[in-house]
């Protein structure tokens, strides 16, 4: 039995848990209000003020461009990670990030050694279409994504069938992608003209240490 299936059983028949039941060994589970409103508000405020948010530049199509969101990377010292061509040295866990990691690990029955934090400042901030399929993440990685703050659309597209899924990720929601998800699907957080305030997303990952 897969780890995510086990997580689902542990959660019982709670209607906050949605299993998208995708084909081909793709695991996608959403837990609405994994953190309740009060705790989500507290975490959002603390992470917004304490994390070392940075603007990053990436080199694409022959020029340097600003990544349209702020980012920072935390984790175990040896959990290096290359993302968008930039090598990330993780900062040491803060107490909040470590506590969130432990709660997420219990839910997923899975160990993580790092987290990528993204801050979407408004509707112009976004994340382009990608799969988290970097070699450092190993085969069929489980990635757990916690959303705090403003709700944003999370779009998924199947690489071959072009099937698509639109999920609005809300304050306190946990989305867990596992199995063949990164192999068959890409995902994005598109720009929007709608008025949007700040949103924090944390993606917990396990970097393979060589
Ligand atoms: O902000 C999100 O919900 C998605 C983040 C993401 O896809 C990533 O960090 O790889
Ligand atoms: Fe991603």
UniProtKB/TrEMBL annotation:
GO terms for molecular function: catalytic activity, acting on DNA; demethylase activity; dioxygenase activity; hydrolase activity; metal ion binding; oxidoreductase activity, acting on paired donors, with incorporation or reduction of molecular oxygen. Residues 111-208 form the Fe2OG dioxygenase domain. InterPro entries: AlkB-like, AlkB-like_sf, ALKBH3, Oxoglu/Fe-dep_dioxygenase_dom. Keywords: Dioxygenase, DNA damage, DNA repair, Iron, Magnesium, Metal-binding, Oxidoreductase. Its cofactor is Fe(2+). PANTHER family: ALPHA-KETOGLUTARATE-DEPENDENT DIOXYGENASE ALKB HOMOLOG 3. This is 2OG-Fe(II) oxygenase. It comes from Methyloglobulus morosus KoM1.
């Amino acid at each position: 039995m897969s780890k995510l299936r086990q997580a689902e059983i542990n959660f019982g028949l709670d209607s906050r848990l949605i299993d998208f039941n995708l084909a081909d060994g793709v695991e996608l589970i959403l837990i609405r209000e994994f953190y309740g409103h009060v705790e989500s508000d507290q975490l959002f405020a603390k992470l917004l003020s304490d994390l070392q948010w940075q603007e990053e530049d990436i080199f694409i199509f022959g020029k340097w461009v600003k990544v349209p969101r702020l980012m920072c990377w935390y984790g175990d010292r040896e959990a290096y990670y290359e993302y968008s061509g930039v090598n990330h040295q993780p900062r040491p866990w803060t107490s909040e990030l470590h506590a969130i990691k432990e709660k997420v690990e219990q839910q997923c029955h899975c160990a993580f050694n790092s987290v990528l934090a993204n801050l979407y400042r408004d509707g112009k901030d976004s994340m382009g279409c990608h799969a988290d399929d970097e070699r450092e993440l190993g085969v069929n990685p489980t990635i757990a994504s916690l959303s705090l703050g403003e709700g944003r659309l999370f779009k998924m597209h199947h690489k071959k069938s072009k099937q698509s899924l639109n999920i609005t990720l809300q304050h306190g929601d946990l989305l867990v992608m596992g199995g063949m998800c990164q192999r068959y699907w890409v995902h994005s957080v598109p720009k929007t003209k709608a008025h949007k305030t700040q949103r924090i997303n944390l993606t917990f990952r396990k970097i393979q240490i060589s």
